[in-house]
């Protein structure tokens, strides 16, 4: 699946803050959250063959999963 391949090729920086934007079915709209990549985070494919990313939501102090296409923008860039 092409979308899954694009998501899976994303390079993540440990403990660097980023904004992640994706469509949240729960809220029926696009949402943006402040997150970070930790050892508990992962990329995976759902049983429905949808790309998923589990990331750490800094404001909620818990892990969340984004399903489908996501946009990630690091604070201050990747450096």
How would you concisely characterize the structure shown here?
By secondary structure, the chain is mainly β. The protein contains one helix and six strands, in the order H-E-E-E-E-E-E. It has one helix at 2-8, and strands at residues 17-24, 29-36, 42-45, 51-57, 62-67, 70-74.
The shape is globular
Distance between the termini: 30 Å
> Please, what is the average pLDDT?
85
Counting DSSP H or I runs of 4 or more residues, the number of helices is 1
Secondary structure category: mainly beta
The total of beta strands comes to 6
Strand content: over 45%
Stretches where pLDDT is under 50 for at least 5 consecutive residues are 1-9
Radius of gyration, in Å, reads 12 Å
Largest pleated sheet: 6 strands, antiparallel
Helix-residue proportion: under 10%
What is the succession of H and E elements? HEEEEEE
Outline the fold blueprint.
Layout (H helix, E strand, L loop, with lengths): L1 H7 L8 E8 L4 E8 L5 E4 L5 E7 L4 E6 L2 E5 L5
Antiparallel strand pairs: 1-2, 1-6, 2-4, 3-4, 4-5
Care to describe what's here?
It is a single chain. The protein is mainly beta and about 80 residues long. It has 1 helix and 6 strands, in the order αββββββ. It has one helix at about 1-10, and strands spanning about 15-25, 30-35, 40-45, 50-55, 60-65, 70-75. Strands 1, 2, 3, 4, 5 and 6 form a 6-stranded antiparallel beta sheet that branches. A hairpin with a 4-residue loop joins strand 4 and strand 5 (about 60-65). The longest helix is centred in the first third of the chain and has 7 residues, at about 1-10. It is globular, with a radius of gyration of 12 Å.
